Fold:
Amino acid sequence: MKKRIWELDFLRGFAFILMVFDHFTFDLSILQTTVWWNANPHILSNLCNFAINYRDSGFSMAIRIALISGVFIFVSGICGNLSRNNFKRGLKLGIVAILLTTITAIFTEISGVYITIWFGILHLLAFSILVTPLLLKIPKIINIIIALIIICLGIYFGTINSTVDLPKILMIFNFNIVASADYYPIFPFLGVYILGLVFGNIIYKNKTSIFPNAKTTVVSPLLFIGKHSLIFYFAHQVLLFVILYIFGLIFIL
Structure:
């Protein structure tokens, strides 16, 4: 990509800010019910209770799917049309995803708080990007049909509470057999990625911004975050929980 499309970086930056807040509430709710439970009432009790109530609300779920993960996945689909080497990009992201799983698994063992990420949004995006070269060879209308089928099947799979001892690898298809602190299965979220891929192929056919004169200095911080979203995502996912965990050990327990 010779010149970055600023609005895509803006959307990623905007979604990232919302993601930090969402993960902050997740971490507080986990810590409140595990590490900090025996210290009630404490100085963060009200904040933790807010986080728990927020996480249980339909509003929280809507924000998480539509404005956070939905934006990241859809924009990543758009960018599948802009990358010179999707295989290399997907492989790189896959390595980062595996590293994130390793770090969170180690911290789970050390802390006793389950925060292991087995198939989170990075794993999903790595898989999606790796299959992008194949998807780009398929006619747009067929991709749309495939995407809708994947989304519908994913919603259906998510309603199944299987009592059968299935292989754990099936969790990637939305059979949530293994608990994962961050969970974005191929069904239905690959469908969102494919829709973004089709949209990008149509709207960004010339690989240039559709709002070339709208960029302002006001959005520059979001553009910076969006441009380096992978680094920010990886760093905040680990550091946010560690900082809160240590804070609890020092000031609460």
Summary: The chain has a mean pLDDT of 88.
